[in-house]
Amino acid sequence: MTGLQNIKALSLFLALIAGTARADPVPEPAAEPPVTIENIRARTGTDLSGQWRYIVDRSRLGIRKRGMQRNFPQDRPATNHPLLEYDWDTSPLMTVPGDWNSQIPEMAMYEGMVWFRRKVEAAPQPGKRYVLHFEAANYDTRVFLNGELLGRHRGGFTPFEFEVTGKLQAGSNSLVVSVDAAHGLDTIPAEDFDWQNYGGITRPVRLVELPATFIRDYRIGLDSAGRIAFAAQLDGPDSAGAEVRFSLPDLSRSWSAKADAEGRVSGTIPLPRKAARWSPESPQLYRLTLAAGADSVTDRIGFRTIERRGNKLFLNGQPLTLLGVSIHEEAIGTTPTRVLDEAAARALLSEAKALGSNFVRLAHYPHTETMVRLADEMGLLVWSEIPVYWDIAFGSEATYAEASAMLRAMIARDMNRPSVVIWSVANETPINDARNRFLQRLIDEARAADPSRLISAAMDKMPEAGGLDDGNLIRVNDPLAAHLDVLAINRYDGWYGPLTPPEVAGVRWETRFDKPIILSEFGAGALHGYRADPSVRWSEDYQAEIYRQYVAMTARIPNYAGMSPWILKDFRSPRRFHGRFQGYWNRKGLIDPEGQRKLAWEVLRDYYHSARGLTAEAGE
Ligand code: GCB
Fold first, then answer.
1. Domain coordinates in residue numbering, the chain
2. Which atom of ligand 1 is nearest to the CA of 428?
3. What's the CA-to-centroid distance between 551 and ligand 1, angstroms?
4. Does the Cβ of 450 fall within 6 Å of ligand 1?
5. Using CA atoms, how far apart are residues 318 and 582, in angstroms rounded to an integer?
6. Nearest CA to ligand 1 atom 4
7. By CB atoms within 10 Å of each CB, which of 144, 277, 466, 520 scores lowest?
8. What percentage of the chain's residues is helix, strand, coil (to nearest 5)?
9. CB distance 566 to ligand 1 below 6 Å
10. CA 479, CA 492: separation in Å to the nearest integer?
11. Which atom of ligand 1 is nearest to 586's Cα?
C-alpha cells in the first residue's frame, strides 16, 4: 500500500466506525428513455391497483447497501442476521394508486421516502414481451423486481416504464418501489411551490403484455393542408418491412404502409369528406385501429387544426377566443386526493363546462391522461404544462435534462389528443440569462417534437415597465415573448399589488409583440359563505368584484385572446397559513373544496355565456 492508499483506508475505517460513511448507494442505471409506449391503457395487461404494503423510511436506509437487515428491495432478507428490522408480510397497507397524504392521517405533511411492495402473479408466455408501466409517482422513484433494480425515474407527473421480459418469473414476483417525495434545489419544481406535494404512486401501474414485434408509437392528425398525416414506429425483430394497417371504421376508411428498415411508416391521405372537425361545440371523435403482424391497438382520435396568424388564434380556420379556467389535479372533497378517477375528473371538467368554458389550463404539471381524454370527449381545449415553476436551477445541465425529459414525455403521451392545443414550458419564472436560455431550449425542443401545436409559458415579471407606478401600465416585454406563440400573463392586481379593486379595470396594457395575449391567471381569495362589502378582503363579494374588474379590463388588452382565471376549486397548499381564511388551503377557487359555487362563479359564467352566445342552460 502506498502512503496515500493507507490514508484513504484509514479514513474510511474511521468513518465507518464513527458511523458517518455513506454506504455505497445502490448502483443507478442510466435514466429510462422518457417516451413511453403510445396508448398503453389500450393494451392487454394486469392492473396492479389495490392494496400495497408500505414502509416509511425517513432516513432513506433502504437505498444504502450497508445494513442488510434493512434491505427493503428484497422480498425476504437474504440473511439470517439476528437484527432483522423489517417484514413486508406484516407491514401496513395503502391503496395504489394513491397519495399517502390523504390516506394516512399522520402522513398528511410527510415529504420523504416510502417503500411499497406488491406481489405480482404472472405466467409469462414465450415469444411475448412484458412492460411495467407507471402513469406517475411523485417524485424520485426506484423500481425493483425480485430484488433487482430495474431503474429510476425523477419527476412527479410523467409516465415511465421498464421492460421486464426475461425478468418476470412464472408464479409469484415481488415488486418493490421506493418513492421519495422530497423536493430540493435540483428538483422541478424546486422547494417552494403553491400546491400540496402529494407523495406516492399517484397514478395506475400496469403489467402489460405485447407481441415480440409491436406498435411502439403512432401519431395521427390533420396537417396544415387539412390532410390526415400519420406515422408509426414498430419495435421488435420483425419490424423492418412489416405492413402497418390503419383503419377508421366510422369513416369507412382504411389504408396500409410498409415499414422501412427502422420499422417506421409515415404519410398523408385525404381527410374523408364526411369527417367532421373536432371542436368544443362538437367534439367529434372517431375510432382508430392500427395493426401490424400479431399486434393491434385501438384509440379514439379527432381532427382539428390550431393556428396562430399574427395576433389571432384560429381553430379549424375559425377565429378562437380561449375562455376557460385553471385547474389543479385535486379531487373535489373535504379531504382531497391527487388521484382523479373518471368520476372525479368529470366532476371538475363539468364545472368548467357549466361556466361556459371552451378551454382549461391544466396547471402546473401534466395531469392524468383521464383528464385529457375526458376533455377530448367533453369538448374542452387544453393547455398542458410542465412544472418549471418559479425559480428552479436554471443554470444546471442536469436540471435541464430533467425538464426536457418531462417535456418530451408530456408531448409524447398526449400527441394524439385533439383537445390539447398549447404546450406550456413554464410558469412565472424570473427573467435572467440562465432562465432565458433554459426556456428557449425547451421551446425549441417542444416545437421540434410537435410542430402542430402552439407553445406558451405563463409570464408575470415585466422588466423595464416601472411596474404599476408607471401610470398603471402593464408592458408585456419579457424577452421570452419573442419565442412564444401565445403570450400568457398572470396578474394579481387588486389582490397582491397596490391597487384597490375599483382601480383594476383602469390598468393600461402595452406590447411590441404582434401575438395573441391571454390572461393565464388572475384572482382573489374568498372563503365560501363569507359575505361582506366588496371592499372586504376574503369575502365572496371582493372576489366577485375582482372578476368584474378583469372582465372589464379585457377591452384594454391588446391582442386579447382569452383567459383562464385562477382557479376552479380551492386547493390544498401548505404555504397558505391564515388561520381564519386559509388553514392550508389556497382560497382563490370559484368553488370551495366541496364544490359549492362562490359569487365570482356567476360573474364568469355570465361573461362566458354572453361572449360565446350560449343560452343559460347550454353550458350546464
Ligand atoms: C400564481 C401562481 C399560482 C399560485 C397563485 C396564487 O401566480 O402561478 O400557482 O397559486 O399565483 O394563488 O398566488
1. 3-40+212-304, 50-96+98-202, 322-615
2. 8
3. 19
4. no
5. 42
6. 194
7. 466
8. 25, 30, 45
9. yes
10. 21
11. 12
Model pLDDT, residue 80: 64
Residue type, 576: R
Query: Is the peptide bond between 367 and the residue preceding it cis, with omega within 30 degrees of 0?
Result: no
Measured in Å, residue 194 CA sits from the centre of ligand 1 at 7
> Ligand 1 centre from 213 Cα, in Å?
46
Domain covering 3-40+212-304 assigned CATH 1.20.1250.20 in the classification: no
CATH class given for the domain over 322-615: alpha beta
| Most ligand 1 atoms within 8 A of CB, residue of 522, 566, 572, 575 to mutate | 566
Residue-averaged pLDDT of the chain: 91
pTM across the whole model: 0.93
Contact (Cβ atoms closer than 8 angstroms) between residue 438 and residue 426: no
How do residues 425-442 score in pLDDT, each as one tens digit? 999 999 999 999 999 999
Mean predicted confidence (pLDDT) in 332-347: 97
Q: Measured from the CB, is residue 427 less than 6 Å from ligand 1?
A: yes
What is the residue-wise DSSP string for 215-273?
Answer: EEEEEEEE-TTSPEEEEEEEESTT-TT-EEEEEEGGGTEEEEEE--TTSEEEEEEPPPT
Give the pairing of strands 160-163 and 148-154: unpaired
